[in-house]
Specification:
Structural class: alpha+beta
Distance between the termini: 28 Å
Number of domains: 2
CATH topology of the largest domain: outer membrane lipoprotein receptor (LolB), chain A
Shape: globular
Radius of gyration: 22 Å
CATH superfamily of the largest domain: Lipoprotein localisation LolA/LolB/LppX
Number of strands: 21
Helix content: 10-25%
CATH class of the largest domain: Mainly Beta
Number of helices: 11
Length: 415
């Protein structure tokens, strides 16, 4: 992403120098289960905004970025409206299970936040969030007839699913924080506008334009609009808008629109927020009588995110540095970065790029992906409104927030 710009799009050389140290190539997602992982890192139907634009002092994009970085909101409570429109095929609800299974990595309690909060990857949801410092927080996912909560109180992290009356318990050093507005629960699953904004802004470089585009009212608060746009062509990202609280610097709303137009792919925003300290009782939790309680260490020999003997179980070829044989590689830069994986010569089943002889199976596979050919050979492109992935018949995977043509071009160049 890009050097920070003022409203008149001027960029001072000193700004480039100051930003050089912050640039990170951290916007890439390994597409083993592209739809699942991509959906887990993006998300969200527009949050309700008040009418009218407030009259606020002028600020530059650089000043607003610094205000976000310096924001230190320790206490808050509120409601977040979150919705996802990735354009995934309708599998009759099966996609939700696939998303959870792709990232869950362990078998056990329905209250385990490692998979439960991945429900945010599709549809429209309402969250209640609360935080009191870095070690006390709560996120509740509200449903029509049930509620799921992650409560972080000191070293304890609890997950409770009222529908199944199941409880999951672990400690913060094993599963990450669950503190509402300040960190993720579980790790890698954004839940608030700040989570999404942090992921975008930490990788700003000269492939991106960043400007201030007026003001807004969000959840009863005066806010500035920060707009992030790719300078490059070939990306599926159109623009990202971040509403920044004028007083605290906390992102109140995050909206990602695709280059193809239409509804937002990601739109997460507070509909109500209060920066006073929540009552201590908000973070109290005792397993209800009769609830099934699962301890994190009890799940199939796991502790946290990895099996206890994971390192011993890996074959020799998986040892070594991240840039060793079989490791994911990246090509391109900025928004046009593509992750490349080598599947060892194993592509998709024959029906995905040819014919199984079964018209129903062929029709299903063809509905999920488009067959393509090039100098690289042939393969199948699986598309969402944001992330696309090309899986070649010889087992290579090319994925990124780029167009189908860009994937084919990359595969041809790597031939």
């Amino acid at each position: 992403m890009a050097p920070y710009e003022s409203d008149d799009s001027t960029r001072a050389a000193e700004d480039d120098d100051r930003l050089a140290g912050r640039r990170k190539a951290a916007r890439y997602v390994v597409p083993v289960a592209v739809m699942g992982v991509a959906a887990a890192t993006i998300g969200l139907v527009p949050a309700l905004a008040d009418s009218g634009d407030p009259d606020l002092p002028k600020v530059t994009a650089q000043q607003l970025i610094e205000k976000i970085a310096e924001s230190d909101v320790q206490q808050l409570s509120g409601t977040v409206k979150i919705s996802t429109d990735l354009g995934l095929p309708d599998l009759g609800g099966l996609e939700s299970g696939l998303l959870s299974g792709a990232v869950e990595g362990r078998d056990g309690s329905s209250a385990d936040p490692q998979s439960k909060l991945l429900e945010l990857a599709s549809g429209t949801h309402t969250l209640r969030v609360a935080a009191d410092g870095p070690d006390r927080g709560k996120v509740s996912l509200l449903d029509d007839a049930a509620e799921y909560s992650v409560i972080h109180d000191g070293k304890d992290v609890w997950g409770y699913d009222s529908k199944s009356n199941e409880v999951f318990h672990t400690t913060s050093d094993e599963s990450g924080h669950a503190d509402g507005g300040r960190s993720k629960a579980p790790r890698e699953v954004p839940a608030t506008p700040k989570d999404f904004a942090d992921e975008v802004l930490k990788s700003v470089d000269d492939t991106t334009s960043v400007t201030v585009d007026g003001t807004a009212h969000v959840a009863g608060r005066d806010a500035y609009r920060l707009v992030v746009k790719p300078r490059q062509s070939g990306t599926t990202v159109g623009a990202i808008s971040i509403a920044v609280d004028a007083r605290t610097g906390l992102p109140l709303k995050f909206t990602l629109t695709p280059a193809s137009g239409g509804a937002a792919v990601v739109d997460a925003g507070f509909t109500q927020v209060d920066f006073s300290r929540p009552a201590a009782s908000v973070f109290d939790f005792t397993p209800p009588k009769g609830a099934k309680v699962t301890e994190g260490d009890d799940l199939e020999g796991t502790k946290g995110d990895a099996p206890k003997d994971f390192g011993k179980a890996l074959p020799k070829e998986h040892e070594g540095p991240a840039d060793g044989p079989g490791a994911p590689k990246t090509i391109g830069e900025g928004w046009n970065t593509i992750v490349v994986l080598d599947g060892g010569g194993e592509g998709l089943p024959s029906g995905a790029s040819g014919s199984t002889g079964n018209s129903d199976v062929d029709g299903f596979l063809n509905s999920l992906g488009d067959q393509v050919k090039g100098k690289f050979g042939s393969g199948t492109v699986f598309s969402t409104r944001l992330v696309n992935a090309l899986i070649t018949d010889d087992g290579k995977v090319y994925a990124g927030a780029v167009t189908k043509a860009a994937l084919v071009e990359a595969a041809d160049a790597a031939r």
